[in-house]
Amino acid sequence: MNFWQNCSMGKATRLSGILLGLSGWVLSLAACQSPGADNPPAATNAAPPAIPLGIALAQTSNLALLGQESVNGAKIAEDYFNQNGGVNGTRLKLIFQDAAGDEASAINAFQTLITQARVVGIVGPSSSQQAFSANPIADRARVPVIGPTNTAKGVPEIGPFIARVASPVTVLAPNSLQAALKLNPNIKRVAVFYAQNDAFSQSETIIFQEALKRQQLPIVTLQTFQTTDSDFQTQATAAIKLKPDLIVISGLAADSGNLVRQIRELGYAGLIVGGNGFNTPNIFPVCKQLCDGVLVAQAYSPEHANPINQAFRDAYKKRYKQEPPQFSAQGFTAVQVFVEALRTLDRSEKLNRYSLAEQRAKLNQQILAGTYDTPLGEISFTPEGEVIQKQFYVAQIKMDATGDKGKFVFLK
Ligand code: 1QQ
């Protein structure tokens, strides 16, 4: 926890007694600003109380390769929406709790946000594996959760307060197989790899395997690993012996990058399809030149032509000096859904008349009722909280000759 989170937590605890029984946003962060040059200390009572939204994503651990990108997107959203009027004049304040890469950290982050920071809702956690443990806690506390990157089957069904803006493996994964078959219609033998200690990887590999069966493509071997592994010699050697002409991998970023590197070093030259764990430029330094050619399905294109994506992309490029990746667009979108649902509710009902519990319940209903024009395109939700999204893409990784720089090239 950093100083400002500490500050806001202390404030939350102190204020909660005073505010008990009072209506209104429960957390004022006005006196908790950075004292830096850009932020002179605010006079007490100068600003209306900000609306606290919890961000419980992986900022440390191996999952941070993906989680930090969503954090970056959420930060852009906070600035963007506050510069554009906040929630009908009230500022939004993101409260960050590192959910790291394991279930216990995600549970801790959720509990702190729900009971101490008293957030109106939570964006998180980063992985489906964590969601299956942490989300039931928010659901029982009746706090709306939007998963920015939880793609495993079954996440929205965890409970009525759980939604996601991440399109599920069921709709995302098969797109990259189609692209592989287009590039090489002669694929005959497929080797499938997946991380067996991760709910998303297990879920995604089932979808890949079902899609391969539908295409009547024989799976010549099924190899398993752990997301924490870095040595894949045994599995890679065994698979390559069977002469596959397509390798399909479901894992997270660091493990998948190392696996690709070792498969290539052992001489495999055929196509590789990577799952959602490959969806980050943070994989480039892991497999370097050997990442080249990997196919990855994407739920976001930086080229998507609508004004909100234009604004997001410009702000992202200005701040992070690169094109926004999918995980950042999803982090932005999750915050956007909260902001727009809050605006709509506040316009019709002046939310500050309600208790926090009532605000959370109304917010959950409004999230599910809305339609949102986002960097991911237009999205809405099923009554279960499953995202309905229209456009999907497939990209191929292109590395330069040195292996130091790479990009996702979107296929037609
Ligand atoms: C999930 C995923 C991961 C790749 C996100 C970090 O899609 O866990 O559902």
Task: Explain what you see.
Helix 2 packs across helix 10 (about 305-320), helix 2 packs parallel to helix 11 (about 325-350) and helix 11 crosses helix 12. The radius of gyration is 22 Å and the shape is elongated. The chain has twelve helices and 15 strands. It is of the alpha/beta class and about 400 residues long. The structure holds (3S)-3-methyl-2-oxopentanoic acid. (3S)-3-methyl-2-oxopentanoic acid (1QQ) binds near residues 126, 152, 200 and 252.
Task: Please summarize what this structure is.
The protein is an alpha/beta fold.
Number of helices: 12
Structural class: alpha/beta
Shape call: elongated
Strands across the major sheet, in which order? Answer: 7-6-8-9-10-14-15
Radius of gyration: 22 Å
Overall mean pLDDT score? 90
Bound molecules: (3S)-3-methyl-2-oxopentanoic acid
Q: SSE order in H/E notation? A: HEHEHEHEEHEHEHEHEHEHHHEEEEE
Indicate the proportion of strand residues.
15-25%
Distance between the termini: 44 Å
List the defining traits of the structure above:
412 residues; alpha/beta; seven-stranded mixed sheet; 12 helices; disordered N terminus; binds (3S)-3-methyl-2-oxopentanoic acid
